[in-house]
Amino acid sequence: MHKSRDDWGLGDFADFFSCELPGIFGFRAGSGRQRSHRRRNQMFESGEVKFVILRLLKEKPRHGYEIIKALEERLAGCYTPSAGTVYPTLQLLEDQGYVRVVEENGKKIYHITPEGEAFLEEHKDAIEDIFDRVRDTVRDFAGGPMGELHQAFGRIAKVTYQRAWRFGPSHPAVPRIVEMLKRTADDIEAEWNRGGTE
User: Fold this and answer.
1) What per-residue confidence (pLDDT) applies to 47?
2) Strand 107-112 vs strand 62-63: parallel, antiparallel, or unpaired?
C-alpha cells in the first residue's frame, strides 16, 4: 500500500518503533555503520541537520515545532532534535535564502525556496549518504537482540500502562506492580554493572 508520506526508506521499521514504544521512553541509538569504530552519541554530524530539515520542508511547509516532531517520528524515536538545534538551523537557512518565512496565525511557517530545492539537488549524494546511515542506525536497533530487547520492554510498558489507565490508581495491584518494577529495575542495573562476567 502506498504511504502518504516519505518514510525515508525505513519502511515498517518506523511503524514498528512508533507503535510499540510510547514516545515518553525516548532515547538515542548508536550508529549502525561504525565508520569511526566508536559508538555515536548523535544521529547527525555537524552541519547535516540542515539537509534533513530542507528535506522535510520540501514535502510541505512546517513551523518549528512541527519540524521537531516530524524528525522524531521519521527517525522512529531514536532521535529528538532540540529546539537549540532546529531554530538556529532554520535561521541559517533563511539567511542563506534556502527557506522563507510566512506568518500564519502568529506562527512562523517555513517554506523551502527554489534556491533551497536547488541546494538539495546539488548535494543529493551527500544527503543519500546521510539517509543510508540513518537507515542503518534504525535497522540495527530494530533487529537481532536489540529488537528482542525493544519488544520485551514495549510489552512491559503496554501491559503496565494500558491496565493502569483502565483500572485507575486505586486498584490494589498498583502498589504490588510498583514494587515488582522496582525490583526488576534493580536486577537490570545489577546485570549491566556485572557486564560480561559470570
Assistant:
1) 78
2) antiparallel
